[in-house]
Specification:
Length: about 300
Amino acid sequence: MRVQLRDTSAVAVSKKLVELRRTGGVVTQGRVLTLIVCAGDARGLEASISAATDASREHPCRVIVVGRGRGDGPSRMDAEIRVGGEAGASEVLILALHGELGDHQESVLVPFLVPDTPVVAWWPNTSPAVPARDPVGRLAVRRITDATNAENPRAAISARLAGYTPGDTDLAWARVTYWRALLVSALDQPPHEPVISATVSGLRTEVALDLLAGWLASRIDCPVQRADGPLRVELHTPTQSIVLGRPQDGRVATLSRTAKPDSLITLARRDSAECLTEELRRLDPDEIYEAALSALPKVEYV
């Protein structure tokens, strides 16, 4: 169900929500958090809403999507309420702020926050330089960006460290979770030798690979290179090579080790909904993500 409210107020939207619960039997119990989606403009809006509602199936929440409307003209708020099946296990409020109201998003959002639950802010496109200092970011205990969708992804992820505050993370980090797990598993097998060199290659614009290289640089005491080329990670020890690779548009990766048969592993690229679901599982600071950011200057780009 979708309900449109034009030139409305927080009071009117709240009353409509209560009415929908009473007449439509919408379930409101069990909300574990408030997820604020800072959409900015309409670019990728429906994809972001879809990812948020998919994530709500594991993390029942109120999703508040806030974006700027027309910058000129009088201040006003247009709202859309989505409840029922298409809203997942959530209720979705889509707020378009016009005029000067667009510069005061935090004051508009406060009345809609679910009481006594943590707040998570997500910027699916353009994000502030320091999310924790952003007016909306100040409301949140967890702040999620996505450098992959930035105009210059590599510059965006490199700038994350300067503005890092405990509670920050990036969806690019979640995109390499399974890669990190597979590499750790491969190194956890005999002969347990130190890694003497490592190379991470792939598309230049895939900043998840930059974070993967930073993570390796923070964990092993050897040179780590980030190169353009086929999507793969190569680790070399004194007596063996470990290579984990996958076609750019493929779903199955190959893990190769010296003198051992290759292993085929399902390793498709993770979409935003899956990554967002993972990041919502923890609300505490991610020290390993911070370490990966801190080690990015150690990575040699070739």
